[in-house]
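Human: Cast an eye over this sequence-structure pair and say how the chain folds.
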Amino acid sequence: MISTPAADTPRASPPAPTGVAFDDEGFLLEPADWTRALAERIAQQAGVGPLGERHWRVVELVRSRFFAIGALPVMRLVCRAAGLDPRQGHALFGSCATLWRIAGLPHPGAEAMAYMH
């Protein structure tokens, strides 16, 4: 008889790609290492699940705004640009910190982290 794991049994996380480094809080150290496949793995590990069209819209906006201004973008404006209410953005990712990790961006700093949960 084949045994199947219980629904609440944690599954092993997919391995990180070779050469991709994260800090102690799970933020990508080198944003250039980010790929959509890596984002999917991070989302799975964070319990966000498969990334859909709305997820990708927000992720791409956060990445483009970060690289344009070099800092944490105002999430209310990101959500508006993605056609979402901020509550919908929170429902998609759980927290801004999780979105930031999925977007493959480096640790935003202690002060910014205080606003990301």
Remarks:
- Residues 53-69 form the longest helix (17 residues).
- Residues 31-115 form a domain with the Arc Repressor Mutant, subunit A fold (CATH 1.10.10).
- Residues 1-15 have pLDDT under 50 and may be disordered.
